[in-house]
Amino acid sequence: MLERARTLDAGDPLAGYRERFDLPEGVIYLDGNSLGALPKATPKRLAEVARDEWGEGLIRSWNSADWIDLPHRVGAKIAPLIGAAAHEVIASDSTSVNLFKLIAAALALRPGRKTILSEPGNFPTDLYMIEGLERQGLAQRRLATRDAMADAIDEDVALLMLTHVHYKTGAIFDMAALTTAAHAKGALVLWDLSHSGGALPVDLNSCNADFAVGCGYKYLNGGPGAPAYLFVAEHLQQAVEQPLTGWMGHAAPFAFSDDYTAAPGIGRMLCGTPPILGLSALEVGVDLIAEIGIERLYAKSQRLSEFFRQCLSELGIELELVSPTDPTRRGSQLSFRHPEAYAICQALIARGVIGDFRDPDILRFGFAPAYLRFEDMAEAARHLSEVLVSGEWQRAKFRERAAVT
Amino acid sequence: MLERARTLDAGDPLAGYRERFDLPEGVIYLDGNSLGALPKATPKRLAEVARDEWGEGLIRSWNSADWIDLPHRVGAKIAPLIGAAAHEVIASDSTSVNLFKLIAAALALRPGRKTILSEPGNFPTDLYMIEGLERQGLAQRRLATRDAMADAIDEDVALLMLTHVHYKTGAIFDMAALTTAAHAKGALVLWDLSHSGGALPVDLNSCNADFAVGCGYKYLNGGPGAPAYLFVAEHLQQAVEQPLTGWMGHAAPFAFSDDYTAAPGIGRMLCGTPPILGLSALEVGVDLIAEIGIERLYAKSQRLSEFFRQCLSELGIELELVSPTDPTRRGSQLSFRHPEAYAICQALIARGVIGDFRDPDILRFGFAPAYLRFEDMAEAARHLSEVLVSGEWQRAKFRERAAVT
Question: Of A9, A13, A176, A160, whose CA–CA distance to A83 is shortest?
């Protein structure tokens, strides 16, 4: 099995990119969908930004280092990964804050409609951000299960808001079909690409998507709490209004006028002063993913996860797969259900295999194709098998829950 | 003049702290109130966070490096600088986003009242964030000049929202008196401390302030676009609700529940995943300012600006001062009005004296006491005098306006 893995690695056109990441010794990292690994170029870039741009350039770097354009520049680099034009994407704030902007924008574009439709079990912050507007009396949250989603879209729905690749199961929504169904009822559509961007090709414009948001610190390797990004389709950019009307979204921020005039284009989605350190680190991660190429990443991601399943099967491990079995219908991850998922996850971490536990009973393995080897798949499968067979997860130290997992 | 300056520097108890900053050669930096200088310890800390915490620790660092607590930890360190208790301050998002949270929170706490009172010419983003809630139909902006402020507070006012030290003039509002006046009419009060925090002592709790926000990248030296901070008085923390209800403000974010339950205490003011690189850099800046001590900084700040004025006077330079002449009534800056302020500012920058131009006719000099010398005051005054006397600002290259200044 290990030999076969090494043969696959030898023939892997992306194998050399692993060297571009700084990965700890003795660790098999299957959690790049929670926090992506560190590109080797990032610390050097951060030192340059701190020493040269901030330290030496000081305030002048807003012009001379073009800090003022950084949200646009990083957005434009993300755009081709998600099927958008360069001027339709901007990097800013957090995914949660960007969700708020776009939910509010949809409500303003669809006066008389208050319903925001999503699914139960969507990533929590997506559901919570709808609640925020509900507290303001502006929105009404409606949740429908996947099967019932198309039927739940009616003329009350201002916005259909879904996560393209489910964080827990990896299941992919049919972006084109659901966007069409929502438009047929006059609703707008927002796709959360947090588990898609950088892992699989997304084609927002082919699907006629209206809005999207996504995360900078997962498959884009932007670092912990990296800035997020958002997309507004070109044809909506003149009409769109959002309530976080900070000075960086103003048409002329340095005129210091008392009254707000929205910037033309995607710039009006900005709010406060852009976080230069975070954006600079994110840019390195995005550049690297763009260099490798999203089609090649997706092809390898499918091969990795299928090989992992095959290894488990050869080791006689049967776990309930909650991800779709068809690799074209899931993101870059496999999730399994086990009543002792937490303890198993902890036992694996103790062996240097870092996966993820998701409450209450999900064991989640992410396969970031930019830096994982087939050898990692074989070794992770072996460790998982040994943990399960030995029952070592039953030891007290693995069962004790930490505050954060 | 220069000799006198050097004598003053020799007797300055804070003189040694200049060495803790990485300042460019040949520059006199009078814009630390726009972007603070780089602490020498910051690049090293950023490298540690990137290489050790992110690269080596990966997802585990949310626990092992206590990333999850970082917004609280940095907030607790800012608290004593602004007269707050440790659990009343949290570092997060941008100043603009934090303004939105707190304006909305005030509206929710004062049902039936919609007016948000501020002053014309307040820092633009403060006024714009009120407009955002106005667009949502939730707020009404009312602006009153300083003289008329106390009279403009009535029973319609949900929130009085002012910037403690004016960004343009440096004038200080009487925090205690205006807070008392607002409370007398049942209004809440929000103080923007962007030009106060780290420059002069603020005593939020003695003044019974309800809310405050502040900037991380000015006198706190957190770096370009550093995370901001916000304050909620303890007695309001159980009642306060804000609409940016992201997962990091949830009582149990890792339970992944579909429904939002606000965290107890200041944690409910968080929204998305905290920006670890930015917060880590900010922490270095805050630690340094706290080590120097806010009372000593303020004392030196007043001496610096008074010495600068004295130098100008001795050089026979008469400029219209728009800042208060009494140093106890202004922040750590001096602003002058001149019809050619822009060109003069550019000519000074060409000489290595970095001040700030503020539309339409303000020449602003900030005196960050942590790293400026009396010698810098004497030299800056000499350069300003030479620029004015020689008329070199009249050259075309200085008059051409860049996009950002």
Answer: A176
Say yes or no for a CB contact (<8 Å) between A256 and B54.
no
Q: What is the pLDDT of residues B272-283, one digit of tens each?
A: 999 999 999 999
Domain termination site, one of B260, B291, B322: B291
Binding-face residues of A in 247-306 toward B, CB within 8 A: 247-250, 253-260, 271-279, 281
Last residue of a domain, one of A261, A291, A321: A291
- Cβ pair B63:A402 closer than 8 A: yes
In a domain? residue B359: yes
Do B261 and B180 fall into the same domain?
Answer: yes
B93 labelled catalytic = no
> Is the domain of B276 the same as that of B313?
no
A20: CATH: 3.90.1150.10
Q: Any CB–CB contact under 8 A between B106 and chain A?
A: no
Residue of B217, B365, B367, B374 with catalytic role = B217
How far, CA to CA in Å, does B200 sit from each of A381, B195, B209, B301? 59, 9, 17, 8
Residues B307 and B272 in one domain: no
**Contact call for A38 and B60, based on CB within 8 A:** no
Chain segment B122-174, per-residue pLDDT in tens: 999 999 999 999 999 999 999 999 999 999 999 999 999 999 999 999 999 99
Cα–Cα distance measured from residue A20 to residue A285, given in angstroms and rounded to the nearest whole number:
10
Residue B239 domain-assigned (yes or no): yes
Is residue B123 domain-shared with residue B245, that is, in the same domain?
yes
- For an interface test with A, the pick among B59, B260, B282 (most A C-beta atoms closer than 10 Å) comes out as B59
Q: Give the separation between CA A120 and CA A102, rounded to whole angstroms.
A: 20
Query: Which among B100, B122, B354 has the least Cβ separation from residue A59?
Result: B354
Could you tell me if B157 and B219 lie in one domain? yes
Asked if ipTM goes beyond 0.85, one says yes
pTM, full prediction: 0.97
Domain hosting A370: range is 2-30+293-393
Q: Locate A342 and state its tokens.
A: 């937490």
Q: What are phi and psi of A84, to 5 degrees?
A: -120, 160
